[in-house]
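Progress narrative, work stream C.
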Amino acid sequence: MIDDYEVIFAGVSSADLCIFVVNRPNIPAAERDIETLEVPGVDGAYHIDNGRYKEMTISIEMNYIGPESKWHEKWREIKRWAQEKNAELILNDDPVFVYRAYYAVLSENSRESLRVGKFTITFYCSPYLYVRGSDEYEKPYPMPVYWGHKVGGGGYVLTENGQKVATKRKFFTLTNEYDTSCPKIKIEGHGECWGRINGNELLAQVNGTLIIDTEKEITVNGHGRNASNAIRGNYEDFYLNPGENVILFDSAFEISIAPRWRTR
């Protein structure tokens, strides 16, 4: 039993439930989804890369001890905890990252003694780890774009007295230190918003608030109603690539981004 090790699932810590980890879990590597095709008479095999990763499973052996009269009650509490779905899973020896657990499965509860229960909980997770807090919106500090200014360098158009001439657009950069991410983009304002993410054009009809979820490939308005017909562009074109990402947009609109930084 490891006294200082915690598993936090759906916002509830194993320590709060008075259950303990027997051994630190093994952590699998994300596995590519690759199909193998064998052809009679041909040496070796053909492989089809589906361009995605399989879900991961993380199994953790746990136990608890308590009064004999409370043994079943504690087990029912654990089963309620394990019923949560699509929730964050945090292991406290890697607190910067979270797993997205689709669901959890419990083994049978082995009654080691009248007071002790022992079981294994297996979490079925997304193949990615996400940086904690990166699912929250960030409002960047944009820079003005001037006539003749190529974003990232270049010259300017100047007035007779040497002043730079500003356009109606602004830009900012986001540096991705991890794998390609699928952000949520919030646009606030009214009218047609023009934007460009890493050179890929986005056009959006905004009436208050518009949220573009590139992971789920859906756009909703501020009331959560489907508004996918309000944008023009491909969702995958708005991903944030490793390294520097340049986002250009009309200055009449406010842009916020939940970057969802992730790694494998």
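Work stream C, second folded protein:
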Amino acid sequence: MTDNIIHFDAFRRPTATPAPEADPAPEAPATAETPARPTATPPRPATRAKAGDDAPASPTIEPNITRITGEGGHVMYRVQLRKKVNGRMRSFTRSFSKLALARKWKRKKLAEFELHGVAPVSAHTVKEVIDVRLARHAHLQRSARSQLIWLRDSHFGERRISEIAAEDLMDLADEMLELGRAPQTVAGYMTHLVRTLDWASRRGYEMPVSAMRQAMSMMWEDGVLARAEARDRRPTLDELDRILRVRAERPNARIPLCRIILFAIFSCRRLGEITRLRWDDLRAEEGKILVREMKHPRNKAKNNVWCRLTDEALAIIESMPRTSEYIFPYDARSIGKAWRRARDRAGVADLRFHDLRHEGVSRLFEMGEPAAFVAKYSGHENGGCLHRYEHVERHGDKFAAFPWTRHVTEVFV
């Protein structure tokens, strides 16, 4: 029993029956090669620290959990689980500031191993998976491509897909928030990333899909991610007049921005949809046109929809010269740049090109049209999706006497 007693030098107490000790071996005389043996027992060396530790680790608290003391006495609890997969040993390690959190993560990982097993080790990285999807999905929208490229070139792109945990995705989201991105923007990045990884998993890439879904669910619940707020900014006639006048000062400009601005309002079309409109898809006698690849929350490709054209929109189309298969044969990015330049020169703040579509839909409601009728122009699947446009504060067509409407259909500007 006495062997189990730990003695501290400052509080050593005599025992009634001390354990017998073996006679010490005779000491050899000290020489230059053999130094004299110290009389006091040297202190026990500290446990060897692993590579990367700031301080040596104390004895294990419990199986798979070790207490690490860093500089300044800061204590962390490291969990290390080891599993053999396909003949190779895999290590799962994570450190926590509290022992309770370490135990919770340990129990959770062991439960995952029991339910889903351990995913085989994959040498593929996030960067490689993103590159494959970008190469195969040329139809991805510009915003999706730019966000995936940013993720690919970040430090997260070097991570192996088989080693991604829910905590890794949550840490990535936190980093983007710290860089100043809004929760709505971070939600877009994370959604594109997880969709890309899920796409790769269905094509044979080994990765913990359940961990990714769990991370997204937790981030939505905790408010790390947020839905984009509904925007209700509408231009006034004075703001539109100022923007159009600024652009009209450049009558020889290659892009007819004035026509495109008013067409966006009267057709209720997005900028990308405008640049994809084709002469062959126009049915002027029926007052409709085929809008190719219309944006849809679920159907991301080949969502072609026939939409009605207002009289003003049709008049603008018929005033355009036929120089290409496209009615507006201009690059969407160039149009957007020209729009922002004219808007800024006119001194109009916080007005986006997409707000013109909102103006067009609201205009139809102000003219007394029902939701089902408006949906035929806007391209919404049903009138119920237009409820946020229905709360109008005025009645009638505010563009009825707007001089620019007649001007753009007569003079090419």
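Residues 1-36, 45-57 have pLDDT under 50 and may be disordered. No further action is required on this item.
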